[in-house]
Amino acid sequence: MSPAHVLVVEDDPRIAQLLLDYLRCEGLQASTVADGAVALADIRKHRPDLVILDGMLPGMDGVSVCRAVRQFSDVPIMMVTARVDEIDRLLGLQTGADDYVCKPFSPREVMARVHALLRRAQGRTMSAPEQPVWQIDADALRIFWRAQVLPLTPVEYRMLSLLMGRPGRVYSREQLLSHAHGDLREVSDRTIDTHVKNLRKKIQQVDAQADVLTTVYGVGYRFDAPE
């Protein structure tokens, strides 16, 4: 497992370097930015495991950054303030930060708090129920892929639900046609190829990496459940 990445958002280069040195000595990855707007973009792009955020920054201040981050991420945030009484004000503002520390601070205390926040975040992640990749709602005749409803026709639903019901099992075109259409006089076995093509397209519109409908040449198709 790679070490956790901590982003330090601090416009004072001396403090920023001090924190970087201590974080790296603790075996953590660390990087720094000095501007609030840049920090917000960096958090969106690189998804750090923890953010140490100065409250007073040029341009976009720490409170604004914290609130903006909470719109898309629950990354642990430690807010650094210049005065003890500022902590009460920030708590009242409900900024969304997980912890607060006042300058001048003890680097060792900050490291202890960093590790505590990382442990808490790890425990939260491990205890969160895992979202299934796919799910069949037989009552509503719907199939979900990564929590999104696939826009299926009734025929596509019947065919895909059959394949998903037995992952790894190969179904012939005749079996799929019989289950999906019922009256085989109205369709050819090549119709199933068109349905599979459309199903692949609809799944990959939600999950571009999904390649779960496998052609078994000369026989038919199978559903390979993603890991």
How many domain units? 2
The termini sit apart by 19 Å
Provide the gyration radius in Å: 26 Å
Q: What is the overall silhouette?
A: elongated
Discrete helix count: 8
Task: Find the CATH topology of the largest domain.
Answer: Rossmann fold
Largest sheet: 5 strands, parallel
Structural class: alpha/beta
List the main descriptive attributes of the protein structure presented here.
227 residues, alpha/beta, Rossmann fold, Arc Repressor Mutant, subunit A, 2 domains, five-stranded parallel sheet, three-stranded antiparallel sheet, 11 strands, 44% helix, 20% strand, elongated
In a nutshell, what does this entry contain?
This protein has 227 residues and is of the alpha/beta class.
Characterize the structure shown.
- The protein is of the alpha/beta class and 227 residues long.
- Helices cover 44% and strands 20% of the residues.
- The protein has 8 helices and 11 strands.
- Strand 1 (5-9), helix 1 and strand 2 (29-33) form a beta-alpha-beta unit.
- Helix 6 crosses helix 7 (173-180).
